[in-house]
Design a protein that fits this description.
210 residues; alpha/beta; 5-stranded mixed β-sheet
Length: 210
């Protein structure tokens, strides 16, 4: 960035895809929970098809941008990026960092070059890859974990359209309730904590052989 500042804001978007979300119609209706009885879900089902859920999470503003596609890939991910980057404040930002893993939709240096070519009108867009095998560091994984537990379990649908309806309805509700917070645990706090753990983790002496 050359040390230059323009007074415009920078944003961080954490993005990922939840693949192959199956729409399953149970052969017998799910029985809701009631006093002294848990929810009962029939184990046999009919497959109605599948969706992919692509989502970007604005880490500082508690904003969500999601879309359902029939499959993941370079083009579906590009549609998500375009949807976000066309609207303010991202289209007017100094930098918009997209945090992604190394999945096939946005893998390595080729994806960076592809984004630069496709979105030349948005030079502020910067694709940032997490280390391989470290996709769990992406904050959007927290939201996708909540989606799995709150929206997709149990997976019991009457038709294929129910999946995107549920996902996008929950997304709007979650966004309305979510609030950003300031993380105050610094790297110096972490270093001090690890130091204390090291000092208190002296192994017990091994017993002597008889």
């Amino acid at each position: 960035m050359g040390g230059r500042t323009t007074g415009r804001q920078c944003f961080v978007l954490c993005a990922d895809e939840k693949t192959s979300i199956q729409a399953r119609r149970r052969l017998h209706s799910t029985t809701p929970a009631r006093p002294h009885q848990l929810t009962r879900v029939e184990h046999e089902y009919e497959r109605l098809g599948a969706w992919a859920y692509l989502v970007a999470w604005d880490a500082h503003r508690a904003r969500l941008f999601g879309r359902c596609e029939r499959k993941t890939g370079i083009r579906p991910f590009g549609r998500l990026v375009g949807e976000v980057m066309r609207q303010p404040p991202y289209c007017d930002a100094e930098r918009v960092y997209w945090i992604v893993d190394n999945g096939s939709s946005h893998r390595g240096q080729p994806s960076i070059r592809r984004m630069r070519r496709r979105y030349r009108r948005y030079p502020e867009l910067v694709l940032v890859h997490l280390p391989i095998h470290a996709s769990w560091l992406n904050q959007v994984e927290i939201y996708l974990s909540i989606v799995q537990r709150k929206v997709l379990t149990p997976n019991d649908c009457s038709n294929l359209r129910e999946i995107p309806d549920r996902l996008l309805s929950f997304q709007r509700r979650y966004e309305a309730a979510a609030k950003p917070f300031r993380w105050e645990f610094t790297r110096h706090d972490l270093a001090n904590l690890l130091g204390r753990l090291d000092r208190n983790a002296d192994p017990a002496p091994l017993p002597r052989a008889a």
